Each structure stands twice: as structure tokens, then as C-alpha cells.
Amino acid sequence: MDGHDSPQTPKGSLRKFLEQLSGAGKAIGVLTSGGDAQGMNAAVRAVVRMGIYVGAKVYFIYEGYQGMVDGGSNIVEADWESVSSILQVGGTIIGSARCQDFRTREGRLKAACNLVQLGITSLCVIGGDGSLTGAHIFQTEWSGLLEELARDGKISTEQVQKHGHLNVVGMVGSIDNDFCGTDMTIGTDSALHRIIEVVDAIMTTAQSHQRTFVLEVMGRHCGYLALVSALACGADWVFLPESPPEEGWQENMCIKLSENRARKKRLNIIIVAEGAIDTQNKPITSEQIKELVVTQLGYDTRVTILGHVQRGGTPSAFDRILASRMGVEAVVALLQATPETPACVVSLSGNQAVRLPLMECVQMTQEVQKAMDERRFKDAVRLRGRSFENNLNTYKRLAIKLPDSEIPKSNCNVGVVNVGAPAAGMNAAVRAAVRVGISEGHKMFAVYDGFEGFAKGQIKEIGWGDVGGWTGQGGSILGTKRTLPGKYLEDIAAQMRTHGISALLIIGGFETCDRIKQSASGTKRRVFIIETMGGFCGYLANMGGLAAGADAAYIFEEPFDIRDLQSNVEHLTEKMKTSIQRGLVLRNESCSENYTTDFIYQLYSEEGKGVFDCRKNVLGHMQQGGAPSPFDRNFGTKISARAMQWISSKLRESVGKGKKFLSEDCVCVLGISKRTLLFQPVAELKKETDFEHRIPKEQWWLKLRPLMKILAKYKVSFEVSDASQLEPVQPRGPEEPAAI
Predict the structure, then answer these.
(1) Which residues lie below 8 Å from residue 489, measured CB to CB, with a gap of 6+?
(2) Residue 452: strand, helix, or coil
């Protein structure tokens, strides 16, 4: 599906308009290089469409740097339709190759000559650190290469003057998430989906036979995939290149596995990064681990090596949205670049797009490898960035239980309750809360069936082993109801006194749901109209539309009328005359009282007669069902662990003060705001919340609305990123809050 919404500008002030960023006369080359990653096609599509949208010419450079060196039919002008229906395709349609020729000056001379002949002086490179380093070298040598070509009579002096500067913007496409400076690289989330699908499948067979599975995942120099998949499935042990196990790990691992079996755990999962090493930098292989488990414990043990399965398949919604945002940001960066602008990389920090100096990021990435080679493993973890470090600390906390005698008791009881609609990831959050609470010395209590169960006294102490295997479960194991606490407040207070509960962690709230599935491909000249959930919040329709390349997404936050509907129908009619003969329209369930899904379906069917036919689908509760995605599991785990640490610090503050009276900052909501995790007092949130519609008064994702419309060929204004200036790349200081 390709396209998006009504041609009205989004609400709120817009600081810069794309009209000021004309690409007229510019030629942009886009290439993918190095290992392929899911989501690269979404990035290519965004670069092509954004470039054409602002009036630039955009060229495909096939087969990476090899195509640039060979020239000819490898460098071809792209049009709007040439990137249709590629959002959902894995790999890269323009091909990728490792290129020895480009490593030589002679090869780079040929590449420069081929680009100059077509007037290409802006390059968008999608690849790993090797590919981006190559682009940086090419940029620094550019003027010298042109002078040499002119001396050899291969280009004219006019061409040297006209095309004297090359601007380069990089996007990191790498499933390993091994690039410093960005929270997530394109392809990582999809690779995690592949790993978790395998782990979930293995869990059922291992449970049947009481087996141990050793799972080897990609990551020659970076343990991100191994670490995050270990967090997401609650693995018993994980081996990473950045953080080798301590001396004597063989015995410690066997003790841990046998303790878990003694707790009636029927399966053990050990995850190994392919580049795993010990403290002496000697490789630790999956076969070695299997031999150890079999000889020491006699467990039935199997090895599964995932290999290239991790690179394959459809990109996840997260990767499609990330790549689309980065692609648009890359074109804006190229349009704003001056001859003095150094090569930059567009990256993600929290939920913000930022620009960072390319070579600083590459140097920091190389510093990690150097630290590992020199056995400075603590430095390696720190240089990987705040997200990696936080993941590792959380994994250690949740995987290894200290003996009771070593945990200082806090004498505090803490309750955990789920409220509102069930959401994927709730169980992972409960598991993390219980285990962090126990490691902090608290007694943890599970409250069943929401506030209603709380009032009735459905409260039970919950232990470390009770939450084993919860991360991959959908729904809410504790049970949840939408009942509000209002009428039960006295009973809840009585239950809190009875059980001596000093603090309460509430997981839920206004309906939350990260999962959305849509399929609307196949038949020609057909428009699918899909209704999504979300109450009055249009996040699912909006982001689902961006991930699926929809033609329109109707949401409550952006009012629309019959004229907008009419213009969307006309837009689709025009689209059907091209080679892109499919349409997708999303409608948030509460976006309008009168313009219902049926109304829109009938309007489109009538107006599209003879041009296209329509189908409609109401997704309903399937959006809340199924196993949680890797993102939901990890987000639930880490945000809950952080919440328990905050609760512990508040309880410590109140020790010895007798009765604790409620202050405003004792009731907080935890979430991501821009780039950091933020504890916000509920009293403050009241001012920022539209209670009637149960949504925030300001929604950060609304600024992505124009992006979808641009990629669907609507004329709109677009707010340029806050990061039009390059930011320094710095490893975080000790006080800076770590991101998810």
C-alpha cells in the first residue's frame, strides 16, 4: 500500500516549511551497502519520495559502492512509482554488495566521475559503520578526485566548479544495533522478532521434554541481539562479546541451571552471541556450552543456530516507521547542507530524530572493539551507550537471585496491580516489578482482577519463581478490569492496612496497545478501509498508516469534514491511473461520531464506481491479543524495573519518619518524554490531560502526520526536526538518565 491523508496542515505552530527547502536543481544518489537489513526498503522509499516531493532528482545506485564504481545502468533515476509496494519487503530492492574497488583511489575516481556526469552531489548511504566510513573518505577526497579527473580530461573545469562539493548523510542499517550514537538501527527490531518467534516455538517443545536449548544469534562484535532477546524471553544465561562471564563461569552456570530445574522449571534457555568470548578473549561456542551441560548435568541439550533467518522476513512496524522517519530526515539534512557541512548520520534518541557527526560515531563504534581487544570490558559496555548498559544491568538483576540471607530486608510490603484493558507486555512488567522488588528486600504482593479484586481482598504474596516464564505471555495473568477505583476506595484502603502495603505499582491506565496487524495487498484496483482501536487516541491509526504506507488515516485529534473525504477519494482515483493500483485507508474507532467506518466505506464505494472497489475490516480485539512483541516485552520489563527502583527510593526516604503523609510527588506516572524516562506527578498530568477523551492534550506523534501525507503525495507543510544542527556524540555521564 502506498499513500496518506487529507491535505490540511497539522495543528500547532510550524517553525519551518518544506517550501523553503527547495531541492530544485539537486540530484541525490541513494545506495544500500554492506549486510542487508529489514527496513532498508522503507528508507529507500522515503528518500526517493521526499526527494521528488521537494523537486530534486533522485537516483538509485544499484549494488552499493560496486554500482557507483561500475556506473552505466547501475545508476538510474527513480520515480514515485518505482518505490511502490516495497515497504513490506525485507532486504533491499536496489541490492547491496561488498566492494573492494571502492577501497582503492582508482575505484573512487571512477565513482566520482560517474556521479559528476549525472550531477549527483548529495549522497544518502544506508549501511553499517564500514559503509559510512567509505562515504566519509569519499567526501573528504571529493575535490581532489574532481581535480584529478579534470587533469585527465575526463570531466570539464565547469563541472569541477559546479559540482565541487559532495554532501553525505548516513542511515544505519544493521541488524546487530552495533553503531554508537543511535538507540536503534534499521533492522534490529525485525531481527529480534525473528529470534523471539523461534524462542517462543522452542519453549513449547522444550517444556514437553525437559530440555536445555542453546540458541546462537548473530552479533560477531556486538551482543545487543543476544542481550535483548535474553531479556525478552527470560533466558537462564547469556554470553556477550562486551561482557564475558567471570572466571569459573562453567560451575556458576551449571549451579544456576540445576537450581532452576529444582524450582520445577522444565526448560533452560541459554543465548549465545556468535562473537561470545571469555575474559582472555578466547571464543565461547554454542557446542562448547552444550558439551559442558551434557557432561556436568546430564541434561538433554540441543543447539539451534539461527543464522540468516534473522536478516529475513517482513520488516516490523517499528522498523518501517523508523526507516521512513530517518529517510525523510536524511533528505532534509541534505537540503540544508552547505559546502562546509561535515558528513552526518541521522539517528534515533528516545523518540526523537537527531543528527550526529558521522565520523565521531564511527570512531566511538571502533573504540568499543578496541576496548574489547584490550580486555577493558567495562569500558566496552559504557561505550555501547546508555541503552545497552541499562539492558545489561536489568538482565543481571532479573536473572540471578541472591540468597535470602544476602538481601537486606526493607520491612516494606509492595503491591502490583493491572488495570484497564489488557495490553501485550503487562506480564513482563509484573515479572520485572516482582523480581526487582524482592532484590530490593521488599515483600511483593500480587493483586488479582484490578481494583475490584483489590477491594475484595484478592491479594497474595508472590515469589521470585512464581513469575518465571511470564515475559512471553499475552494478556494479563493477574487479571484486569476496567473498573475505576472510585467506589472501592474505602475497601481498598482497608485492604492496604490489613496487608501492610506501603507502596503500589499500577500497570495499565488509559488503554494502551502497541500491537497492530494489517494486511491489504493483492487484488488490483481495490481500496481497503480498516478500523483500528485506541478510543479517542489516533496513535494506532496514525502509526499503522505510516508503517503500511496508507493513503489516509482519519483520527480524532485532526478534525476532518466531507471536503477532506472527497479530496481523498479524488486522490485515490488519480492513483488508480498509475501502476500503483491499491489503496489503504485507516480510521480510528472514535475519530468522528457521524463519519463512521460504514459511512466512509459507502462513500468510497459510490464515488469510486468503475475505478476501484472497496473492502472494509474492523480489526477489533485481535489488536490486544497474541504474544507480546520484543519491544513490548523489553519496554514493560525495563520501565517496570525503573518504577520499582523509584518506589524503593521513596520508601527509604520515609524510613523513621513515622506516619507518611502523601505529597504530590508520591503518585507518579512513568513514561518516555522525548529522550528520557520521566516520573511525572499525577497532579501535574491533570493539567495536560483531556479526561473526557482520555488522551493527552498534546501528542508527540502528531508531528509525524505530515510525513505520512508527503509519502502519499499530498501537498502539506512539514515541521523540520529540532536537530537541524549537528549534536556532539558523547558517552553519557553518571547522572544522565538511561534511555529505554
Answers:
(1) none
(2) helix
Task: Convert the pLDDT of each residue in 257-313 to its tens digit.
Answer: 998 888 777 788 999 999 999 999 999 999 999 999 999 999 989 999 988 888 878
Distance CA 290, CA 301 (A): 6
Point out the catalytic residue in the list 2, 70, 176, 178. Answer: 176
- Global pTM reads 0.86
Cβ contact 218:185 at 8 Å:
no
What angle (nearest 5°) sits at the alpha carbon of residue 597, between those of residues 595 and 603?
70
User: What stretches of 510-632 adopt beta strand conformation (E)?
Assistant: 526-532, 552-554, 582-588, 613-618
Whether 512 shows a pLDDT value over 50: the answer reads no
Which among 576, 601, 575 has a CA at the least distance from the CA of 586? 601
What confidence score (pLDDT) does residue 77 get? 96
Q: What is the distance between the alpha carbons of residues 189 and 299, in angstroms, rounded to a whole number? A: 32
CB within 8 Å of 554: residues ≥ 6 apart: 5, 6, 541, 560, 585, 586, 587, 588, 591, 592, 595, 600
Find where cell 485481535 sits: 622
Is 68 in a helix, a strand, or coil?
A: helix
| Other Cβ atoms closer than 10 A to 343 | 25
DSSP secondary-structure letter at 90?
Answer: -
Total length of the chain: 740
Give the model confidence (pLDDT) of 307-341 as tens digits.
888 887 889 999 999 999 999 999 999 999 988 88
Task: Report phi then psi at 207, rounded to 5.
Answer: -60, -40
234 in Cβ contact with 427 (< 8 Å): no
What pLDDT score does 718 carry? 58
Tell me how far apart the alpha carbons of residues 49 and 700 are, in angstroms, rounded to a whole number: 24
The answer to whether 453 and 447 have CB atoms below 8 angstroms apart is yes
Half-sphere exposure of 409 (CA within 13 A, CB side): 6
Provide the b/e sequence for 242-267 (b: ≥16 CB within 10 Å): bbbbeeebbeebbebbeebbeeebeb
pLDDT greater than 60 at residue 13:
no
Of 237, 305, 232, 245, give the one whose Cα is nearest residue 271: 237
Residue reference for cell 477523551: 693
- C-beta of residue 331 within 8 angstroms of C-beta of residue 710: no
What is the tens place of the pLDDT at every residue in 74-116? 999 999 999 988 988 888 999 988 889 999 999 999 999 999 9
More confident of the two residues 474 and 19: 474
* Lowest-pLDDT choice from 159-168, 428-437, 673-682: 673-682
As given in the structure block, the three cell numbers for residue 117 are 556526469
Residue 612: Cβ-neighbour burial (10 angstroms; 0-12, 13-18, 19+) = buried
- How far is the C-alpha of 630 from the C-alpha of 636, rounded, in Å? 10
Mean pLDDT of 482-495: 84
Residue 176: active-site member: yes
3-state secondary structure 595-618: CCHHHHHHHHHHHCCCCCEEEEEE
CA distances to 51, 369, 423, 687 from 420, rounded to whole Å, are 44, 46, 9, 21
N- to C-terminal Cα separation, the chain:
31
